[in-house]
């Protein structure tokens, strides 16, 4: 489904080229040098990127980004440190019409500059290139405010420029209210446009899932943001069948079948962004309940350090991934960031000198240096069949999106035992639980003990919004419940940037189980998961709860969130 605007923002007159040059503008070092100095890239990567650059005539930064050697976020942070400017990740950034009107769209688009806030009588402008002297000089022609620059990830900045200025001329709320009123009064309205508005709202709310639920009197639309479901719209009950049918047609589903579960897929395009949508519909007492999962294409990757694990855990993860062979598992419930962790491990691996093959359902991150295969059961491509084929592709590293059955597990273990590094995921509550889960699938414990290198278990906790969080004092009940001493913590408040929730984004709390000789013996002898967990803790393993409380102490989340997510 294409929800791109038919009428983009009208271009404003371009500013004159004559402008006063800024004094003391910072001088840029070569990007490769800056990234090397920051420890984000190694010389062989730069050499490889330069070879690609000669063939494509692209800028080095564009090549490095396309090859996933660095991220847009990492480049922006490096530039911020280089210039001494503040960094803004633009997460939760809002569009205030009064502020946007300070800078014309055509200038913002041309210069990668976005006005984001007014603070202390100064206009805050996010920039992608802090070394653009002409752009800096021309800002003063559009605003009476003194300007403060923040460096932001360029790709995200460009997306928000298009989206914010489009919303300036096409506000969502007003149009949704018009259609809601028309449906209630029995007047004509465009179902296709209503579906577009429902999908567009998901983008504005940073939602991962959309729930379209029928009730006896109304159709409820809720959005899951940062792992929590929030009700947003209530439409007249008559709209439900029309909304569901429109989505089913686009997703290639059978609109005549309403009494059996169905799955479908569709693509959402909006202002240059593309999303893969996975649709699930099930029959209920009041109609079909539909859930839509949004998978953004071209989203940024994370580094091992950026996942949120503490220093000791990062060191343990690095030890695991530097082993030449063995199996590493990422575990946790659905939506706990397992795939993100696996891709972070792939980023750490030197994919230039190693042959890396993946089989995924779906491919969530495009990695040009990695050979990625998508599961296609109709064509006979399953996790198991792909692994068999990989054995003939001279692999060094194999990533399996998920271990779902005995055959996939057995083939993964076979690959680990024959000199390959295998990465995969399981759905378990903790690290030791992965061993019991593989046993349930029929995997022999002796083989598992000789192939499993380690398990990374994790949960995602909502991160406190840094723009509105406030200091808080622990209550006696909180200290007793979580077994912690009194100390400085923070509480959620709520602001426009975090959608009034008090939280913005998520951070991982995890535990890393390394399989040493003692634990290998416990696994081989089929000891229960709790014994393995206790042995690992005696050796100093930080549990998920330990990690979560560390995040509280660091002011990244609060005890309410720990209590919601961690047992």
Q: What overall geometry do the principal axes of the alpha carbons give?
A: globular
Name the CATH superfamily classification of the largest domain: P-loop containing nucleotide triphosphate hydrolases
Under the CATH scheme, which class of the largest domain? Alpha Beta
Separate helix tally: 22
End-to-end separation: 40 Å
Q: Overall pLDDT, averaged?
A: 89
Which residues sit in consecutive blocks of at least 5 with pLDDT less than 50? 4-27
**Lateral arrangement of strands in the main beta sheet:** 13-12-14-15-11-16-19
Work out the radius of gyration.
26 Å
| Percentage of residues assigned to helices | 25-40%
The biggest beta sheet reads: 7 strands, mixed
Give the second-level CATH assignment, the architecture of the largest domain: 3-Layer(aba) Sandwich
Percent of residues in beta strands?
15-25%
The structural domain count equals 3
* CATH fold category name of the largest domain: Rossmann fold
Structural class: alpha/beta
How many β-strand stretches? 19
Description:
The chain is an alpha/beta fold and 567 residues long. The chain has 3 domains: 71-152, GMP Synthetase, Chain A, domain 3 (2-Layer Sandwich), CATH 3.30.300; 172-296, Beta-Lactamase (2-Layer Sandwich); 305-459 and 507-544, P-loop containing nucleotide triphosphate hydrolases (Rossmann fold), CATH 3.40.50. It contains 22 helices and 19 strands. The strands form 4 sheets. It has a 7-stranded mixed beta sheet, sandwiched between helices. Strands 7-6-5-10-9-8 form a 6-stranded antiparallel beta sheet. Strands 1-4-3-2 form a 4-stranded mixed beta sheet. A hairpin with a 2-residue loop joins β6 and β7 (228-236). α15 (406-417) crosses α17. The longest helix has 16 residues, at 154-169. The radius of gyration is 26 Å and the shape is globular. Residues 4-27 have low confidence and may be disordered.
């Amino acid at each position: 489904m294409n929800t791109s605007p038919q009428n983009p923002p009208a271009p404003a007159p371009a500013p004159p080229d004559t402008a006063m040059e800024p004094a003391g503008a910072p001088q840029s070092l070569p990007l490769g040098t800056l990234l090397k100095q920051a420890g984000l890239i190694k010389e062989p990567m730069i050499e490889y990127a330069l070879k690609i650059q000669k063939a494509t005539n692209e800028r080095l930064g564009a090549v490095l980004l396309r090859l996933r050697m660095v991220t847009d976020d990492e480049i922006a942070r490096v530039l911020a440190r280089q210039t001494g400017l503040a960094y803004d990740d633009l997460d939760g950034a809002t569009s205030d019409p009064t502020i946007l009107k300070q800078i014309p769209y055509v200038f913002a688009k041309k210069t990668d500059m976005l006005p984001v806030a007014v603070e202390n009588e100064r206009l805050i402008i996010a920039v992608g290139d802090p070394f653009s002297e002409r752009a800096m000089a021309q800002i003063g022609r559009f605003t009476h405010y003194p300007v403060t620059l923040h460096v932001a990830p360029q790709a995200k900045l460009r997306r928000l420029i298009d989206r914010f200025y489009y919303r300036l001329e096409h506000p969502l709320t007003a149009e949704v209210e018009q259609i809601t009123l028309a449906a209630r009064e029995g007047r004509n309205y465009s179902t296709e446009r209503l579906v577009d508005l429902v999908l567009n709202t998901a983008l504005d709310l940073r939602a991962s899932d959309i729930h379209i639920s029928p009730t006896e009197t109304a159709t409820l639309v809720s959005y899951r943001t940062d792992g929590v479901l929030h009700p947003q719209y209530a439409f007249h009950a008559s709209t439900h069948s029309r909304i569901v049918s429109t989505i089913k047609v686009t997703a290639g589903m059978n609109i005549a079948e309403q009494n059996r579960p169905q799955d479908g897929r569709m693509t959402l395009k909006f202002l240059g962004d593309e999303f893969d949508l996975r649709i699930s519909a099930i029959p209920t007492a009041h109609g079909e309940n539909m859930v839509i999962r949004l998978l953004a294409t071209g989203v940024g990757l994370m580094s091992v350090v950026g996942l949120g694990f503490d220093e000791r855990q990062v060191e343990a993860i690095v030890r695991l991934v530097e082993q030449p062979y063995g199996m590493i598992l990422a575990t946790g419930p659905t939506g706990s960031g397992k795939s993100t962790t696996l891709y972070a491990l792939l980023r750490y691996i030197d994919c230039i000198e190693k042959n890396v093959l993946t089989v995924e359902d779906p491919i969530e991150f495009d990695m040009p240096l990695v050979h990625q295969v998508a599961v296609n059961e109709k064509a006979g491509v399953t996790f198991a069949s792909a692994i068999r084929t990989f054995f003939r592709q001279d692999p060094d590293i194999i990533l399996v999106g998920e271990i779902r059955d005995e055959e996939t597990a057995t083939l993964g273990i076979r690959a680990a035992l024959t000199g390959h590094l295998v990465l995969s995921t399981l759905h378990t509550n903790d690290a030791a639980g992965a061993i019991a889960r593989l046993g349930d699938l029929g995997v022999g414990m002796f083989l598992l003990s000789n192939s499993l290198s380690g398990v990374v278990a994790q949960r995602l906790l909502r991160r406190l919004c840094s723009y509105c969080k406030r200091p808080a004092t622990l209550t006696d009940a909180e200290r007793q419940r979580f077994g912690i001493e009194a100390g400085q913590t923070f509480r959620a408040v709520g602001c426009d940037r975090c959608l009034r929730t008090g939280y913005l984004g998520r951070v991982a709390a995890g535990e890393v189980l390394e399989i040493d000789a003692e634990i290998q013996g416990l696994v081989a002898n089929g000891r229960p998961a709790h014994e393995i967990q206790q042995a690992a803790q005696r050796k100093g393993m930080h549990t998920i709860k330990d990690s979560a409380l560390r995040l509280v102490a660091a002011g990244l989340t609060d005890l309410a969130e720990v209590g919601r997510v961690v047992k």
